[in-house]
Structure to design on (210 residues):
DNA sequence: ATCCTAGTTCGAGATGCATCGAACTACGGC
DNA sequence: GCCGTAGTTCGATGCATCTCGAACTAGGAT
């Protein structure tokens, strides 16, 4: 297993972030992580196989939207709400309407 | 040439809109249309061929982001800022930061 | 050591997308 | 009618993406 890498906030590109958010599965994942929730991959209830979920989480991570933290045998995923808000103010809020999007944190 | 159709505001899907916005060329087009500008296709200075531009405009139109109005021999394109704002409040503003995005119109 | 659980990586298949040039349509002017 | 301009549609090409199952890795429990 290769080490997990995250782009720095300044590297986030708007097309990249929008593309990452343009898939229903990934949008559901981001929705499950609103309000600062941190969940292990397995707690994300999306209707895809384990390998597909792993792929989507990599896309979100590479786009700079999520942070993956290793804890024992599992990986905890959370939204990089602050970084995204700093780069693209208001974006998370507009994409996750029924939530504070933790953007003010 | 088939007749030009536009989806009604209620049909706009968030993944669809985000996907339409996730291409740099289309993002540039939307940027050129901010603040209520209405331009003929040819006035959009993007570095792609005519057929590719036509394709991108169709993607934006089908996603519900733009309105195409026929006037003589040319097609005038404009942002459906009000409709998008009603469906996804704040989205245009966050994607077109250096502009009012005409969303309050 | 053995096993289980959690998740990643590796092909592979099917689909979608961006791009182009060429052919086409439609309107306006001469 | 004839031509030019504006834009669309039609393949075709090459690349990206979504999806899966199978094989793999790594940590924890027994």
């Amino acid at each position: 297993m290769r080490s997990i890498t995250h782009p720095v906030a300044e590297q986030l590109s708007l097309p990249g972030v929008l593309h990452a958010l343009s898939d229903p599965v990934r949008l559901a994942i981001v929705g499950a992580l609103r309000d600062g929730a941190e969940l292990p991959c397995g707690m994300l209830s999306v209707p895809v196989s384990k390998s597909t979920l792993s792929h989507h989480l990599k896309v979100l991570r590479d786009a700079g939207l999520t942070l993956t933290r290793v804890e024992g045998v599992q990986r905890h995923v959370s939204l990089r709400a602050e970084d995204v808000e700093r780069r693209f103010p208001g974006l998370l809020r507009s994409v996750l309407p029924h939530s504070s999007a933790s953007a003010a944190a």
In short: The first strand of chain A starts at residue 38 and ends at 40. Residues 50-63 of chain A form the longest helix (14 residues). Strands of chain A lie at 38-40, 66-71, 74-79.
